[in-house]
């Protein structure tokens, strides 16, 4: 380990790993990169505890385009991330996403988002009640006004696999990855100059990148900065189904999509089981070390919504559950990516509000461009920059699960 690096990345899960990889392969960049990760097991990382989905059904063009690049990386991951004979396969499952709208307001939101998606070239269709019933005959659709279905370009994949692939390739390209914890960040006026590690080492830094997930606010505070991000708990449930509807769809070779019910409860196939979750009725910030599942959510919220939606979800049984954290942006539920306007060598890559895994590839590329070239050269992330935090100007994303 050296005493100074051109770039120090705080956090080594999918966002930090993606930034490191994209930097190391960025044409014209020949600097040194250090990734500091406090927990090499990633047992409580949002990446590891994620439901691992990717979708293009967003209400903002930037989020649609970010996922389109993410899918491109996922589909070509084995080739892009090959190191020696290792070609990591992310086992992408092209299941699609299905949004259901019950109220006129929900239907209008789907229509407005659909216009954005189609303008970006996404393969998404709107269905009326009859078309929905034809495609997915197991669903009760009498109360549904409109449905939005991603015919391609959406699905789920290996969450830890994408992180591990980025990390291994970044290291092979020359990035250093260190197990330690950043406990202090020193500034000299309008610049950060070094990070202090828990081990006692002080590392000089040309640029510091905050990629510390739900702990982003803690990292920012070390540099005397603020970011409106807090950990929000999400409990995921794996359940068995007495009479599974998987295979009954009349689209996509019988495979069911990830369905988002109008209640906010969602579920998707997971092997021979199903995975489900939802937005809690009460959703406070939690302690950074609080990972106790909210067991009652299944009986109180998830099972009733699913049983109402399909007769085949009436007889189900939980076989596993776990809780993870959203790095929740309280301003507008959207990522915060870019330089601090006053401390310009401090870069945020935070606040993904549950979308970090799918937005990791494009975020890594964007931050790498910002460092290497001083500007964005592919996707313009200006709308999701930190300036809107200073101005109190939300850039809302309506399609948040």
Describe what you observe in this structure.
28% of the residues lie in helices and 26% in strands. It is α/β, with parallel strands linked by helices and 401 residues long. It has two domains: 214 residues, 3-Layer(bba) Sandwich (FAD/NAD(P)-binding domain), CATH 3.50.50; 152 residues, D-Amino Acid Oxidase, subunit A, domain 2 (D-Amino Acid Oxidase, Chain A, domain 2, 2-Layer Sandwich). The strands form three sheets. Strands 1, 2, 8, 9, 10, 11, 17 and 18 form an eight-stranded mixed beta sheet that branches. An eight-stranded mixed beta sheet has the order 5-6-4-13-14-15-12-16, sandwiched between helices. Strands 3-7 form a two-stranded antiparallel sheet. Helix 1 runs parallel beside helix 6, helix 1 packs parallel to helix 9 and helix 2 packs across helix 9. The longest helix is centred in the C-terminal third of the chain and has 18 residues.
**Low-pLDDT residue intervals, each spanning 5 or more residues:** none
Q: Radius of gyration, rounded?
A: 21 Å
With helices defined by DSSP (H or I, 4 residues minimum), what is the helix count?
10
- How many structural domains does the protein architecture include? 2
Helix percentage:
25-40%
**At the fourth CATH level, what is the homologous superfamily of the largest domain?**
FAD/NAD(P)-binding domain
CATH topology of the largest domain: FAD/NAD(P)-binding domain
Mean pLDDT rating? 97
Subunit organisation of the chains: single chain
Structural class: alpha/beta
N-C termini distance:
41 Å
Q: Identify the overall geometry.
A: globular
């Amino acid at each position: 380990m050296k005493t100074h690096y051109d770039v120090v990345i705080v956090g080594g899960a999918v966002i930090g790993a993606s930034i490191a990889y994209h930097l190391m392969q960025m044409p014209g960049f020949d600097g040194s990169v250090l990734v500091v990760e406090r927990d090499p097991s990633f047992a409580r990382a949002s990446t590891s505890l994620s439901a691992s989905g990717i979708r293009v059904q967003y209400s903002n063009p930037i989020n649609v385009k970010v996922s389109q690049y993410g899918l491109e990386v996922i589909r070509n991951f084995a080739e892009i991330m090959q190191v020696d004979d290792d070609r990591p396969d992310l086992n992408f499952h092209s299941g699609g996403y299905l949004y259901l709208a019950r109220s006129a307001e929900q239907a209008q939101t789907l229509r407005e988002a659909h216009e954005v998606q189609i303008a970006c070239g996404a393969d998404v269709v709107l269905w009326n009640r009859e078309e929905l019933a034809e495609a997915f005959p197991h669903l009760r659709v009498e109360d549904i006004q409109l449905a939005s279905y991603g015919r391609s370009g959406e699905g789920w994949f290996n969450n830890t696999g994408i992180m591990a692939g980025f990390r291994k390739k970044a290291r092979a390209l020359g990035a250093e990855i260190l197990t330690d914890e950043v406990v202090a960040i020193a500034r000299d006026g309008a610049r950060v100059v070094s990070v202090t590690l828990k081990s006692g080492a002080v590392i000089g830094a040309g640029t510091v990148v905050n990629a510390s997930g739900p702990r982003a606010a803690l990292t920012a505070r070390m540099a005397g900065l603020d970011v409106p991000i807090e950990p929000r708990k999400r409990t995921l449930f794996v359940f068995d189904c007495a009479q599974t509807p998987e295979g009954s769809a009349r689209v996509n070779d019988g495979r069911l999509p990830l369905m988002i019910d109008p209640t906010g409860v969602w579920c998707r196939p997971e092997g021979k089981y199903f995975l489900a979750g939802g937005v809690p009725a009460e959703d406070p910030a939690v302690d950074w070390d609080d990972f106790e599942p909210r067991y009652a959510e299944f009986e109180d919220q998830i099972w009733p919504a699913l049983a109402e939606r399909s007769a085949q979800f009436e007889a189900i049984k939980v076989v596993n559950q776990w809780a993870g954290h959203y790095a929740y942006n309280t301003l507008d539920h959207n990522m915060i990516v870019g330089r601090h306007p006053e401390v310009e060598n401090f870069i945020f890559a935070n606040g993904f509000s549950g979308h970090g895994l799918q937005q990791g590839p494009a975020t890594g590329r964007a931050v790498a461009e910002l460092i290497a070239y001083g500007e964005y050269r592919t996707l313009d992330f200006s709308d999701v920059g930190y300036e809107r935090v200073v101005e109190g100007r939300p850039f809302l994303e309506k399609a948040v699960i």
